[in-house]
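Lab notebook, design round three. We kept the backbone fixed and only want residue identities now. Task for the bench partner: fill in a sequence for the structure below.
Input structure tokens:
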């Protein structure tokens, strides 16, 4: 991998380590009406649509901001004022969608499973059968809170059978885990430039069913987060309504080129799976215990239980790893004390092995003998 070694390697859920060529693509100033810039936009939108297998049915609407902006925009634009959203929750990003509904005063209900248990398609089935007011369902493909992979195919099938519309937060999965609109019916999928597609942060995008977007005119309670308005503006003059993140788009264009060169979703996914296997094996050899069984683990980010050894102090561990050039991530679980290590970004086998080596040296330096947790019972139900 060709990351510039003076930067620390980011083993996090984003922002991520990007390639030198993706960073270099930003060394130019574009006017928002430049012919070349407009062409870059067109190619980015076309590529994203193709990656989702959605050219015949959906459109790609890019949006300034972080991933949350585009999830919020998708909910606000697609769920009508008299609609109701059913949210499948097993972590912070599902809960965040409920907060969005609170802000937008959209009716919603929740089918919740613990953070280490996948979304429940049977619970969804029952909830949809019981409540005719529900118009839309929302789910998170990979819940980055724990790193769990949710059964999106089954969720989509149940939702479609009940003739409801599905909104997917595929932020941390899209580009590395297959999500094809021809097999998994959805009205909207939201993701961002800087996760598995390895661009820099600053923009998100939604892949939205054209017919649903056409019907959504006037729904959005926010001007800047109105995907219908953003799309119709772009269709009219090929430009963004408001100042585009030009450099981010140029970097994203380069990152998408590199994604294709790597073999698209299959190639990127294979590298991340290998990263994840190396990480899990190496950490287990040291005695660390991961939260999830391998069958539920997405190759995106791994949650580890905090070691019970009294000499383990997360801040110290984090700082020492940082000094060695590796950035990890605190835990976000409510069920267990934990930390996370990511497998995504411009990292491969060499970088994962170097990270494990740094962890080995760090725990030795801290005098930690036992890397396992105190009790597993509470967390691994
Ligand atoms: C599944 C998921 N949804 C939404 C978000 C929010 O993205 P952002 O922090 O870019 O707003 C994240 C961020 O990690 C995520 O993993």
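Proposed sequence:
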């Amino acid at each position: 991998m060709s990351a510039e070694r003076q930067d620390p390697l980011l083993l996090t859920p984003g922002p991520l380590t990007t390639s030198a060529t993706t960073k270099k693509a930003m060394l130019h100033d574009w006017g928002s009406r430049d012919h070349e810039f407009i062409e870059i936009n067109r190619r980015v939108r076309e590529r994203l649509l193709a990656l989702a297998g959605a050219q015949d049915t959906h459109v790609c609407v890019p949006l300034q901001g972080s991933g949350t902006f585009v999830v919020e925009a998708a909910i606000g634009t697609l769920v009508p004022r008299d609609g109701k959203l059913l949210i499948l929750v097993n972590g912070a990003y599902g809960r965040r969608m409920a907060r969005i509904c609170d802000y937008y005063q959209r009716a919603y209900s929740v089918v919740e499973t613990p953070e280490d248990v996948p979304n429940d398609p049977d619970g969804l089935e029952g909830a949809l059968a019981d409540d005719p007011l529900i118009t839309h369902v929302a789910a998170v493909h990979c819940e980055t809170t724990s790193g769990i992979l949710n059964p999106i195919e089954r969720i989509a099938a149940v939702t479609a059978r009940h003739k409801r519309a599905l909104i997917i937060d595929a932020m941390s999965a899209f580009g590395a885990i297959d999500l094809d609109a021809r097999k998994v019916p959805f009205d909207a999928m939201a993701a961002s430039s800087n996760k598995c597609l390895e661009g820099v942060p600053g923009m998100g995008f939604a892949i939205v069913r054209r017919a649903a977007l056409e019907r959504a005119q006037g729904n959005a309670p926010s001007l800047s987060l109105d995907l219908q308005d953003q799309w119709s503006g772009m269709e009219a003059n090929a430009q963004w309504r408001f100042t585009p993140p030009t450099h981010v788009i140029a970097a994203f264009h380069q990152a998408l080129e590199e994604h294709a060169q790597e073999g698209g979703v299959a190639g990127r996914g294979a590298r991340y799976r290998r990263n994840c296997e190396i990480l899990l094996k190496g950490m287990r050899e040291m005695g660390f215990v991961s939260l999830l069984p391998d069958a539920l683990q997405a190759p995106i980010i791994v949650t580890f239980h905090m070691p019970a050894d009294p000499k383990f102090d997360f801040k110290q561990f984090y700082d020492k790893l940082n000094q060695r050039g590796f950035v990890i991530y605190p835990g976000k679980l409510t069920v267990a004390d934990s930390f996370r290590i990511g497998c995504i970004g411009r990292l491969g086998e060499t970088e994962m092995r170097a990270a494990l080596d740094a962890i080995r040296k760090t725990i030795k330096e801290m005098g930690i003998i036992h890397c396992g947790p105190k009790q597993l019972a509470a967390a691994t139900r």
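Keep this in mind before ordering anything: Confidence is low (pLDDT under 50) at residues 377-381.
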